[in-house]
């Protein structure tokens, strides 16, 4: 049974694509007209359509919504000769899973096809809770959707939440989403940047002060904790809270009441607490730099945000979103991006995570000026230099591993040579992959970017054991 249907007016192109897919253990059928393709979709169980142009007189893009509504609800990858960024955008907006310019880069198409098939298999589990307001959170990968599930769960209760993740992974954005989806959404969301609280004024900023409580206290101030009354208090960078304040704060958490600096009376504040950190609080507890009792209080629900390098399935959506936003801010037409622009961003490690991506794309849009397509050259030298360095570091030391080719008699054909060394290279890669991932297939897929079926097929083909 075929999983994939190719619809393209060029029969020779369809045949060669089918052969390439078969080499990747993917079974495809094809049609050279849209009407026949549609009929095949109604009787078959296709998960993916590779939709080319010239498949009849109509513009293939006009057919997108019809194709998406056939019973198997296939994913669609559009392949087009068009160099028009509007066409690419129209395809994605029309519900295509991805867009590939022609001539098609078959290697890349194979990767996309495998990802689309995997996405289709897991789609029912992937839908974020329907009623959740995303508050600007972009992405649909399994990892991101599992975080949205926790947002939904956290929003339905008043339990404290501890959000962890590297810098720039969206901790504040997710905290705002929890608040916006909670019953407190009509009340204030108050951010306390614990890293920026001046030592001498911590307590007055948090709990307020009475007039004349200290030299510069000319007026009464109500403090951040009281401002959050009825709403949500977000302790950002909670790992930076001084130990003395941790102690006071713990008391406030227990009674939701406190005394402003210089005040005689206790006042109350009914706030919901969210806290975030990029530090390892458990290690800080071990090192006695963070109070164990406060740590246990904070982590009612844990939300761990993944670094961008683990969210590569979301990268395409994130780029489209931020490029569109940057163009809108500059009041210019939206821009497309070349496949190697995406490849460069996929290879970069993103130490500053999504915040760094946003900056990189803002700059790329400005550098591109009036050019309609973004290319790697529009990225900063820093990103390109890092990617170049990574690629070189990853290259196997071929010279050490392959004997010099000097024997005129036994000189191999390029094909023999390539097949022999590709096989060696893949075997070597897979063995290392199994070692690093400890044979854990989900982890191995994440590291290698391979889909499960493709990884299993390669392991079998190269005779590599999961436990090697
Ligand atoms: N999934 C996402 N979708 C869209 N935008 C995102 C996403 N995640 C993060 N961002 C954006 O990335 C930027 C950084 O996010 P945010 O400030 O919430 O990160 P943070 O983890 O709190 O960072 P820090 O630890 O440095 O304070 C913001 O512009 C935010 O809107």
UniProtKB/TrEMBL annotation:
CDD domains, per the entry: AAA, REC
BP term (GO), one: regulation of DNA-templated transcription
Example of a GO MF term: DNA binding
The Response regulatory domain, residue ranges: 3-117
Name of the featured protein: Two-component system, NtrC family, response regulator
Natural source organism: Desulfomicrobium apsheronum
The Sigma-54 factor interaction domain, residue ranges: 137-366
PROSITE patterns: RESPONSE_REGULATORY (PS50110), SIGMA54_INTERACT_1 (PS00675), SIGMA54_INTERACT_2 (PS00676), SIGMA54_INTERACT_3 (PS00688), SIGMA54_INTERACT_4 (PS50045)
Keywords: ATP-binding, DNA-binding, Nucleotide-binding, Transcription, Transcription regulation
DNA-binding recorded as keyword: yes
């Amino acid at each position: 049974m075929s999983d994939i249907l190719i619809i393209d007016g060029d029969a020779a192109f369809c045949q060669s694509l089918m052969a390439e897919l078969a080499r990747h253990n993917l079974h495809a059928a094809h049609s050279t007209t849209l009407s026949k393709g549609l009929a095949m979709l109604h009787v078959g169980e296709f998960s993916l359509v590779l939709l080319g142009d010239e498949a009849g007189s109509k513009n293939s893009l006009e057919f997108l919504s019809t194709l998406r509504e056939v019973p198997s609800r296939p994913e669609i990858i559009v392949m087009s000769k068009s160099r028009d960024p509007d066409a690419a955008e129209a395809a994605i907006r029309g519900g295509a899973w991805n867009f590939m310019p022609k001539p098609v880069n078959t290697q890349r198409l194979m990767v996309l096809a495998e990802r689309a098939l995997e996405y289709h298999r897991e789609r029912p589990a992937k839908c974020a809770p329907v009623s959740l307001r995303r508050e600007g959170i972009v992405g649909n990968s399994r990892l991101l959707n599992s975080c949205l599930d926790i947002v939904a769960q956290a929003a339905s209760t008043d339990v404290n939440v501890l959000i962890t993740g590297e810098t720039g992974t969206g901790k504040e954005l997710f905290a705002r989403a929890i608040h916006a989806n909670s019953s407190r959404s009509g009340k204030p969301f108050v951010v306390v940047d614990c890293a920026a609280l001046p030592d001498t004024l911590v307590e007055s900023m948090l709990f307020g002060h009475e007039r004349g409580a200290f030299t510069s206290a000319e007026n009464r101030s109500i403090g951040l904790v009281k401002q959050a009354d009825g709403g949500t208090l977000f302790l950002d960078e909670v790992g930076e809270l001084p130990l003395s304040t941790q102690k006071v704060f713990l008391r406030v958490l227990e009674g939701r009441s406190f005394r402003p600096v210089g005040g005689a009376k206790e006042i109350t504040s009914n706030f919901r607490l969210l806290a975030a950190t990029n530090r390892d609080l458990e290690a800080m507890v071990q090192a006695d730099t963070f109070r164990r009792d406060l740590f246990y209080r904070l982590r009612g629900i844990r939300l761990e945000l993944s670094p961008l390098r683990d969210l590569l399935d979301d990268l395409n959506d994130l780029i489209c979103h931020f490029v569109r936003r940057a163009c809108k801010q500059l009041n210019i037409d939206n821009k497309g991006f070349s496949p190697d622009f995406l490849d460069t961003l996929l290879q970069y490690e993103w130490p500053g995570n999504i915040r760094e991506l946003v900056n990189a794309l803002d700059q790329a849009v400005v550098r591109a000026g009036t050019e309609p397509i973004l290319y790697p050259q529009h990225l900063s030298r820093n990103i390109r230099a890092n990617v170049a360095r990574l690629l070189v570091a990853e290259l196997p030391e071929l010279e050490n591993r392959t004997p010099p080719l000097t024997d005129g008699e036994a000189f191999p054909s390029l094909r023999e040579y390539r097949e022999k060394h590709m096989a060696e290279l893949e075997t070597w890669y897979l063995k290392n992959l199994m070692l690093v991932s400890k044979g854990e297939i989900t982890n191995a897929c994440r590291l290698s970017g391979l889909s499960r079926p493709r990884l299993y097929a390669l392991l079998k083909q190269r005779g590599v054991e999961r436990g090697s």
